[in-house]
Amino acid sequence: MTARREPLRLVSVLTRRDDEPGEGAATLARYAAAGHEVMVVTCTGDATGGDGVSEVLGAGHHRLGYAAFGRPGGTSFASVPVAEPTERLVRVLREFRPHVVVAHDDTADPGPDRVRCREVSVAAFDAAGDAARFPGAGEAWQPGKLYTVHEWSEARMRALHEALLARDLESPYRDWLAAPSPGTRWITTRVPCGEFFPVRDRVLRAYAGFLAPAVRHRLAVPVHVRQAVWPTEDFELARCHVPTSLPEDDLLAGISPQ
């Protein structure tokens, strides 16, 4: 990833705050540390952990303001018509004017809030640059790229599993590798960010009591093993309006400040 004189802007759209550790947190921290502007947008507000977590990443935070699926406190995010949260997110994109948007992978979790978050992220990315759509939501702005995060893959788990066994360490991946594979994901972009894994771990620890074992177990894998075996976070380029070539090692490849 090359240095840039002018900062660019990235938005990560999450279902809720405790998605942060598993959704490209080290990548966001790297770009923030390089002087780029990073914002985390959360669709629902049911997670705990405090507003200070995004600051650990060097990111701002914006809430869309929905309740989580099956939780009291208002209309749940999964049940509202998709146009409503799309307009709210379009307003955020047009105000912040990001060059890159990062969204959930649509295969990792079939939960209704997460599915809706993915739908809204894609719809808002497509609508933000069209002045005829949501004309009351600010001046049109088209982000250059939309990525989805591929946090988990069989290749990653197998590499870490074998590295742990080679070091006579307990592996948390045995059961997952014994289960049927969900299929190969198309990874277009691997961002080197191993030096920021400790930052991601700080975020993970802040939410440890609220996370599923599939995420929480990473704290059992020594950071030096993760840095040595798989020092990237992996993404799929889902939409692109700028010139680039694949594979990439930079979410900002091909983007100019204008």
UniProtKB/TrEMBL annotation:
Entry superkingdom: Bacteria
InterPro entries membership: LmbE-like_dom_sf
Protein name as annotated: Mycothiol S-conjugate amidase
Organism per entry: Actinophytocola oryzae
